[in-house]
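DUF8006 domain-containing protein: structure tokens wanted.
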Amino acid sequence: MVPLQLVDSFLLEYNVGQALLLVFVLGGVGLLPLKSQKLLSLHVITFGVVFLLTPQALVPTHYLFLGIVLVVVGPLLYVTARA
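Answer:
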């Protein structure tokens, strides 16, 4: 179990968008060994929606644009995936 002070000290140095981006990248790397393009695309779509729904008071505007890109690219990845 991670002490709460460690998590708090980490989040004080970064904004919410950077923490979400780190979770997005680590989750994507964790999905790579599964070799499933559909799961990866669902991961991309989910984080696109998360970036879109994050309040703009907590993150800079460029994370909103990242969310828009992920919501557009995610379904394209899903459609091009093999069954």
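Helices lie at 4-13, 16-31, 37-53, 62-80. The mean pLDDT is 93.

Cheers.
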